[in-house]
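Fold it.
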Amino acid sequence: SLGKEGYRLQVNKNGVQISANNPVGLFYGIQTLGQLLPKEIESKTFIAGVSWKIPFADIQDTPRFAWRGLMFDVARHFFTKDQVKQFIDEMVIYKYNLLHLHLTDDEGWRIEIKSFPNLTKKGAFNVKKTGRFTEFSKPEPNEPRDFGGFFTQDDIRELVKYAKDRFVDIMPEIDVPGHSMAAVASYPELSCTPEAVNYQVISGEPFIDWSTNHAVALQDNTLCPANEKVYTFLDKVFGEVAELFPFEYMHMGGDECPKNYWDKNPQIQALRIKEGLANSQEVQAYFTRRLEKIITSKGKKMMGWDEILEGGGLPKNTAVMSWRGIKGGIQAANDGHQVVMTPNSNVYLDLMQGDGIIEPPVYETVRLKNSYDFNPVPEGVNAALIKGGQANLWSEQLFTYRHLQYMLYPRAWAVAEDLWSANENKNWNNFIGRVENHFERSDVAEIKYARSMYDPIFKFSKTLKGEIEVDMAAEVGNISFHYSFDHSNPDQFYPIATGHLIVPKDAVEMRVISYRGKKPMGQMIRFPISDMLKRMK
């Protein structure tokens, strides 16, 4: 059965026929047909001399999951309406059907709320910085706060229609009670902390201490659960947002909420006594239940990150998005909640996809194989409660749309297959062949992508003699690594790394490049020996 979104695509001597039960199935059949055409179909300009042939085929295709999502963070760095449209155009090629828009955070409030104009007048702008996000210097008082932007309500209506015309639903996220500095800087009365009157929208400077296993705020970026004004604010905000987005769910965030200001705040302590709340986790759970009533009153269902399970008492109708691995999703499903799996170990596409020596540095790595190995349904969990999965693209380190594409592809192709194809039908080597085909198509389409799958996975160790030993593994097949220790750039005529490689005693740097036969495949990597020693500590 083709179901709601499935299609059948037949190509034979009589021509091309696509059949489906619904328009969305026909739409997906057309996406597949486009991928059967020569790569030149992707060109923005006319290319002469192309043989426009399609191979004979009989494809019957249905999705494994109804929820096939991509999260686009437009809060940390703002992306324009046209860039969001481009994002939608790219995601539908791979049959994604849910765009999760992360609209608010400490660095910006990106949606017009008519009841609270300061949210965009002040909250949508910060100071433009260049370098590594979270390591920027604190902005000076005289630096212009003109970097950012926001969507008007008409912009949102236009985007919702644009997406719907391509069979994509948009789910808005208003992230509370943490990640709320843009709101607090705009309306300080929403905070428990009197110093909030001096707060500004964050521009990428450090303001949370992550050295322990939980967030410790250096400035209070939370809404105050003990303040009734906060719930009036949320009622109006979620009311306006609900009218703009027809999708059944609204995402309320709920993640990474620091509790250190709450722990010492008299208003919070009074709330705990009044409501019988044992600790600050239960204070957040109280806040979540109040917000769920507001969202339900707007005719919507609530979804949040897996932290909303902490503190107990989560309303049954609330869905959980599991990001800290799959553990939260398993717990939520066992408690009877609907779940969307989005574990950071597999589908956080802002994380490095290769070695930190060459990739833009982030704190962890998610390689293409990690993304391809994603299975949203863990063993022993009621599959009916797993709505599907989603890849998330946070934008702290995304300064341009070109770099956004580099982080998305090819990993978003892997997740698309995870969410569409039956797990038993997946084949890594077959997938890599198709990735390489789509690299060629992306070149024609002028879409940027990462070739990190060709670069080595490094492992360093010390021999009994105290020498440095280097092991290099390939993520894909039929690759050789050519290296040098003499500061020259290796090519296919240089030695090939096989087995354990011993670093010469006086070497300062190793250079490595991957080849397939005579063709260079990866980047020229320069690895200082001093960095190898740091890795081994």
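The two ends are 56 Å apart (CA to CA).
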